[in-house]
TrEMBL record, chain A:
Protein name in the entry: beta-aspartyl-peptidase
EC numbers: 3.4.19.5
Active site feature: T294
Annotated positions binding substrate: R322, I323, G324, D325, T344, G345, K346, G347
Sorted UniProt keywords: Autocatalytic cleavage, Hydrolase, Protease
A biological process term (GO) from this entry: proteolysis
EC category: hydrolase
TrEMBL record, chain B:
Catalytic activity: Cleavage of a beta-linked Asp residue from the N-terminus of a polypeptide
UniProtKB keywords: Autocatalytic cleavage, Hydrolase, Protease
Top EC class of this enzyme: hydrolase
UniProt name for this protein: beta-aspartyl-peptidase
Active site positions, chain numbering: T204
Taxonomic source organism: Stephania cephalantha
Length: 426, 336
């Protein structure tokens, strides 16, 4: 037993020749997202909040880098910090009621230090007041900040580790160069995401988002605040505005790189999986391997609760309105009392094979271990080159199999195991 | 064993006071659809997936059930239909959501499967694809019936979203896995949210077929929930939830969409056959009893060996089935 966390940044035909300039920042992003997730789990954060947090950070770095870009252009980190605080309010220890007033999504427990979950007002869900832990001394690196003030000392109310991530993102040309969501054949962005809680099997999903900064958090709101599981396109955008989540102009997600990439895909007249090499020639886009459209995170917390989250921009040159496996419960995303799974790869293949549910079903109905179940699904149920997944079990096991060339992935467990990898041999 | 078989459904959960003539009308429609499928299967002119499409088209075109013409209305008073189809042998699948002008969503789902590189298209993109493919489109008004306008008005007055079997949701903020139980704890189906019992309950439709070569296929089509939020996607278009087909069986589900999604209901029928070795009817019963967490739903299924099965934990399900050996049955209530 014990907590465990695994995350991925997409599986696919990642060339072994990937240069270190491209590899290093990506590994660094995985490492920092992993570290944040680990800290959250160590502080007894609930798995559901942790996967939302890590998914959010991965989106920030990978799917929604446009936000970082725009903020940087508008004069530094202030906006980014504001944005992080808005969503981070769900996760970060709060020190004063002043913080609460500046972030309307805070629950009534926000005035005291501790984990504050969005939707705390909802009875029987997420974090009750009793489970909101004072965590000033639980966060590593927390100094003796006075007056319940702010650990990072910049008024953000955030623990220092999160600042590291954001500052890295801001200062990192690689990220700032715009790893935006990939574009549809119309040159627009349509993002989708899904989140699921293992114990209650509650889940939320969104598709067809074009202006919402954090798709995963909107999926969480669909789960918490609507009678439905799944909202899409205009209806999801309307819901986002009702809920007051951060939105930007759709153009923010569209970068020169992904426009160039769409052009190539169109010339090649094919739908390109988000993570593949640029076609036909790598030299035409220096960041070719960077088209990681899918990110995901699975976690089991100290209480044994499981959760999963997946988010994606989809395929380059996908048809308008295309929905992939990511938002579909049982395909790209699934959690129950036994395990939590997030899959990535060719959406159509993952959907047909109900990949995420089948890992759980093999454990449930055939008594397989997490590792064997995931191995069976990746080796026997999906064609070569189409799928990868990360999964954790209730007992803290982790597995991260894939049948593609590589999968950006990272994991850590309470007993000290930690790993960041791309291909099989590293 | 062997031989062809098919089953159809027109939704789970039925007004207990549904007038006799409405019941007869539903049974006639189900019988007509079965006969249509039987004729196609006897002639061996069509594969399982073709028969599924044929039969679901018929169900969509008739305003009786909640799909195509006669679909439930969104809160905005519009129709947003969804459908999916899956062909067992290669597990090919196609799905559409948010379709507002396509006369037969099941055929658009089929085209997504056959003619697009994707499995699932939605809203504007699905509509655009429909036009590229030249499928029959009609004005949104075509789908809107007087009965459903009345239903929407009543649903709005009650300020509730009405599931397709017309039991109001109580307590939207606790609409998790336990929502189903609360609905039944606090509301008798007889109350029917103050809706006149003379108003017919529209339902989701579905069809499962195994042909004489043992190929299985499934299709499901719906207008969704009365007074649903625009953009809401239910179980019907989701592979593994409302619809699933593989080498051993095919399944179409209906009922509380959210419970069906959480339970990955259709896939789980196949999974317990595949991984636990259950027979078709055992699998259906097991899934209905163990995977719904208090939600109400029903399903029809066929196996590659020519078996046919159904199950539901709602008060009723419009359904019919037929097999090669001459068996044919149409029913609504628990025992017919």
């Amino acid at each position: 037993m014990g907590w465990a966390i695994a995350l991925h940044g997409g599986a696919g035909d990642i060339p072994f020749s990937l240069s270190s300039e491209r590899k290093a920042p990506r590994e660094e992003a995985l490492r920092q997202c992993l570290n944040l997730g680990v800290e959250a789990l160590k502080a007894n954060g609930p798995a559901l909040d942790v996967v939302e947090l890590v998914g959010w950070l991965l989106e920030l770095g990978v799917v929604a880098a446009g936000v970082v870009m725009s903020s940087a252009r508008e004069g530094g980190g202030g906006n980014v910090m504001g944005q992080l605080r808005k969503v981070g309010a769900v996760f970060w220890p709060l020190k004063s009621s002043a913080g609460a007033s500046s972030a309307p999504s805070f629950g009534p427990g926000a005035e005291r230090p501790g984990w504050v979950a969005r939707g705390q007002t909802t009875p029987g869900h997420a974090l009750g007041r009793e489970s909101a832990l004072p965590c000033t001394n639980r966060w590593p690196h927390h100094g003796s900040d006075s007056g319940g003030g702010d650990a990072s000392g910049d008024g953000s109310g955030l623990p220092p580790s999160s600042l590291v991530v954001v500052r890295e993102l801001e200062n990192n040309r690689y990220f700032n160069a715009g790893i935006g969501s990939v574009l549809t054949s119309n040159g627009t962005v349509e993002m989708e995401a899904c989140i699921m809680d293992g114990k209650t099997k509650k889940c939320g999903a969104v598709s067809g988002l074009s202006t919402v900064v954090n798709a995963i958090s909107l999926a969480r709101l669909v789960m918490d605040k609507t009678p439905h599981i799944y909202l899409a396109f205009d209806g999801a955008e309307v819901f986002a505005r009702e809920q007051g989540v951060e939105t930007v102009d759709a153009g923010h997600f569209i970068t020169q790189e992904n426009i160039e990439r769409l052009k190539q895909a169109k010339e090649a007249n094919r739908v390109q999986i988000d993570y593949t090499q640029p076609i036909p020639k790598e030299s035409t886009t220096p960041n070719g391997d960077s088209q990681l459209g899918t990110v995901g995170c699975v976690a089991v917390d100290t209480q044994g609760n499981l959760a999963t989250a997946t988010s994606t921009g989809g395929l380059v040159n996908k048809m308008l309105g295309r929905i992939g496996d990511t938002p579909i419960i049982g395909a790209g995303t699934y959690a129950n009392g036994l395990c939590a799974v997030s899959a990535t790869g060719k959406g159509e293949a993952i959907m047909q094979a109900t990949v995420a549910r089948d890992v759980a079903a093999l454990m449930e109905y055939k008594g397989l271990s997490l590792k064997d179940a995931a191995k069976y699904v990746i080796e026997e149920c999906t064609p070569r080159g189409t799928a990868g997944l990360v999964a954790v079990s209730g007992s803290g096991e982790i597995t991260m199999p894939f049948n593609t060339t590589g999968m950006f992935r990272a994991c850590a467990t309470e007993d000290g195991h930690s790993e960041i990898a791309i291909w099989t041999s590293d | 064993m062997g031989g062809w078989a098919l089953a159809v459904h027109g939704g789970a959960g039925v007004d207990p006071n549904l007038p006799e003539e409405r019941q007869e009308e539903a049974k006639r429609l189900l019988t007509r659809c079965l006969e249509m499928g039987v004729a196609a299967l006897r002639s061996k002119s069509l594969s399982a997936v073709d028969v599924v499409e044929l039969v679901v088209r018929e169900l969509e075109s008739d305003p009786l059930f909640n799909s195509g013409r006669g679909s439930a209305l969104t809160a905005k008073g519009t129709v947003e239909m969804e459908a999916s189809i899956m062909d067992g042998p290669k597990r090919r699948c196609g799905a559409v959501s948010g379709v507002s002008t396509v006369k037969n969503p099941i055929s658009l789902a089929r085209l997504v499967m056959d003619k697009s590189p994707h499995s699932y298209l939605a809203f504007g993109g699905a509509e655009e694809f429909a036009r590229q493919q030249g499928v029959e489109v009609v004005d949104n008004d075509y789908f809107i019936t007087e009965d459903n306008l009345q239903m929407l008005k009543l649903a709005k007055e009650a300020n509730k979203i009405v599931f397709d079997y017309r039991i109001p949701i109580i307590g939207l903020e606790t609409c998790g896995a336990s929502a189903g139980a609360e609905i039944r704890d606090t509301t008798s189906p007889l109350q029917m949210n103050g809706l006149p019992i003379s108003v017919y309950a529209p339902e989701t439709v579905g069809c499962v077929v195994v042909d004489s070569e043992g190929r299985c296929a499934a299709g499901t089509s719906t207008g969704g929930l009365m007074n649903k939020m625009s953009g809401r996607i239910g179980d019907s278009p989701l592979i593994g939830a409302g619809t699933y087909a593989c080498n051993i069986c095919s399944v179409s589900c209906t009922g509380e969409g959210e419970a069906i999604i959480r339970g990955t209901l259709a896939r789980d029928v196949a999974a317990v056959m595949e991984y636990k070795g259950l027979k078709l009817q055992e699998a259906v019963d097991w899934v209905v009893n163990n995977r719904l967490d208090g939600g109400q739903a029903g399903m029809i299924a066929v196996s590659s060996e020519g078996e046919v099965a159904y199950g539901f934990n709602s008060n009723a399900m419009f359904r019919g089935s037929a097999t090669e050996d001459g068996f044919m049955e149409v029913g609504i209530w628990e025992s017919t």
